[in-house]
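2024-03-11 09:14:02 INFO worker-7 job=invfold-0412 stage=load source=structure_tokens
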């Protein structure tokens, strides 16, 4: 049998803990202790894994500063 590689997943990380809030907003804790946070729109140093965990609670919110850059 021949299988196409289209639609196949690639294993990128082994994960101890994962928090997925929305497309392009998630955090991963790897077995090595390394934390990977992906988010769209905020600086990475502003967001922690604990922030993402807190957002799992219904009606919770988080205020972050967002700097906008404009090209003239």
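2024-03-11 09:14:09 INFO worker-7 stage=emit residues=72
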């Amino acid at each position: 049998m021949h299988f196409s590689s289209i639609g196949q997943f690639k294993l990128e990380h082994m994960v101890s803990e994962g928090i997925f809030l929305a497309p392009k907003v998630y955090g991963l804790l790897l077995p090595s202790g390394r934390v990977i946070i992906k988010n769209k729109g905020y600086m990475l140093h502003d967001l922690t894994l604990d922030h993402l965990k807190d957002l799992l609670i219904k009606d919770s919110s988080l205020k972050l500063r967002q700097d906008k850059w404009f090209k003239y």
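2024-03-11 09:14:09 INFO worker-7 stage=report msg="The CA atoms of residues 21 and 37 lie 11 Å apart."
2024-03-11 09:14:10 INFO worker-7 job finished
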